[in-house]
Amino acid sequence: MTTMAAVYPRQSMRERFKDRERQKFFLVFAGGKMLGLIAFFAVITVLGPWIVGMVTHAQAAEPPSITDTVNGMNTAWVLVAAFLVFFMQAGFMALEAGFARTREVLNILQECIVDTCLCALLFWAFGFAFMFGVGNKWIGHEFFFLNGAPTTYGSTGIAFMAFFLFQFAFADTCSTITSGAMVGRTDFKGDLIYSFCVSGFIYPILGHWVWGPGGLLTIPSDGVFMRDFAGSTVVHTMGGVIALAGAIVLGPRLGRKFKRDGGGMPPGHDLLWAAIGGVILWFGWYGFNPGSTLSALDAAGIGRVATNTTLAAAAGGLTAMLYVYPRLKKWDVGITINGFLGGLVAITAPCYWVNATGAVIIGAIAGPIVVLVVDLMEHLRIDDPIGAVAVHGGCGIWGTWAVGLFATGQYNDVKGLFWGGGAKQLWTQIWGNAVIGISAFAVAFIIFKLINAAGMLRISEEGELNGIDITEHGAPVYHPEPAYTGMGQE
Q: Are 53 and 105 contained in the same domain?
């Protein structure tokens, strides 16, 4: 076997260097290296200033504006919250359908679906511009059809379109609340008209006063201004008083006998669906309230808001149930559902600024408020089949006032009466809530009167007796199964 040593005998460095072939190889190799280094430095000398200039220019460029920097975590959080709030539409459909009579269910489903479609287009066209566009203290006037939208909304770091979607879900909620008091006798043409007015004008314009840039009620007076974290006034009080205006102008359903006349509220046809709808709404509220932090990074705030939301709802459900038990001697499911919904509505404004004890007290008071407002509506002979005025109107007012009572001052400068903040914040809350509530009621009442004068608000007596589902939509929601004949089914 031939070895490497036999082929290349071992030599000293001096002997190898004397080899002519090795000398040539070394000179060629070393010369090539030198030429390569010379070429490299020549390239650096010629092109270096251009390359360095490019880098220097990039580093010296204007840093992006904060309004052009999207915070991915905050945007994702707001989108998840928007999806939760949107899913509340399923809760509203189930809740209202369950509390209504069988003949009214299909109308409720159609109204909620169409109202959502209508609200989306109206909020895109001009509702968002009126509410969140820069303008004056009364109304915004930019972003019509979402034109000129920047990368983010203001300094929130949230992608503009994500913020739009979140706010659309809120607008959709306000209009849906209104329908709850108008069940069973509203002409669908009239429903389209008033929904157009609520989603396109009333909600966004009045909402601008509280949440819009430079809005009327955002201007500090004596160091304080109105606070409404997630909408006890903007969404719920407004929706509740609009519902009240509609119920008054419409009048009660045919055959509706009130308690003072020896009757009472007709029972809901399916409390299973009402209960499921109520719990879906509770679930959706975790987008409504915690999502209004607009920041996934505010972990402490999100946790506090979610906990307060839960405690207020639980307290409201129990106190409403217990409040009516001595009267009925029954554990009433319907009032328990509306009780926890009242607790949710009440905690919506103060959820960020109160502690857990405050949340329990706010919810516990909201439960009896629901019952008392239902009693008042019954005494006044105003027909509100779902309890929209009591839950959203009554508890929306209470929740807005509660900020001025229970805000602790621990989480920012909002401090209520019971925490040594004096009455300034409380009176600001009462005043702001009254401005929004009275304005919404007055405008809605005029609109409903005009629609009614045009003969498009209420269906005919014959149509109502036949059932609004058949009259307006051509079919009942429940079709009886054909009798079994023993001959099979085709």
A: no
- Rounded CA-CA distance 204/183 in Å is 24
- Whether 187 contacts 456, CB under 8 Å: yes
Tokens of 49: 């200033």
* Claim to verify: residue 311 and residue 456 sit in the same structural domain: yes
Q: 31 and 124, same structural domain?
A: no
* First-residue to last-residue Cα distance in the chain: 93
Has residue 484 been placed in a domain?
no
Residue 418 to residues 349, 361, 414, 422, Cα–Cα distance (Å): 17, 12, 12, 8
Report, as an integer, the average pLDDT of 436-456: 98
Count of structural domains, the chain: 2
68-77 in b/e form (b: 16+ CB < 10 A) is: eeebeebbeb
**In the predicted model, what is the mean pLDDT of residues 175-199?**
95
Q: What is the DSSP letter of 149?
A: -
DSSP-assigned beta bridge partners for residue 408: 415
How far apart, in whole angstroms, are the C-alpha atoms of residue 309 and residue 39?
72
Chain-centre distance of CA 159, in angstroms? Answer: 16
Residue 42 has pLDDT above 50, yes or no: no
Same domain, 117 and 249: yes
Confirm whether 3 is domain-assigned.
no
CATH of the domain at 181: 1.10.3430.10
- Rounded CA-CA distance 86/486 in Å is 46
Same domain, 89 and 32: no
Domain final position from 16, 40, 61: 61
Q: Which of 19, 40, 61 is the last residue of a domain?
A: 61
Query: Domain residues for 347?
Result: 73-473
Q: Is residue 33 located within the same domain as residue 83?
A: no
Q: pLDDT at position 8, please?
A: 41
CB 172 within 8 A of CB 116: yes
Average pLDDT, integer, range 429-437: 98
| pLDDT for residue 48 is more than 80 | no
Check pLDDT > 80 for residue 31.
no
Nearest-angstrom CA–CA distance, 308 and 310: 5
Exposed/middle/buried for 335, CB within 10 Å: 0-12, 13-18, 19+?
buried
Q: 3-class SS at 13?
A: helix
Give the length of the chain.
Answer: 490
Overall average pLDDT of the 235-250 stretch: 98
pTM: 0.85
CB 356 within 8 A of CB 309: no
DSSP H helices in 231-298 = 238-250, 271-288
Q: 440-472 as b/e, with b when 16 or more CB fall inside 10 Å?
A: bbebbbebbeebbeeebbbbeeeebeebbbebb
| Average pLDDT rounded to a whole number, residues 443-472 | 96
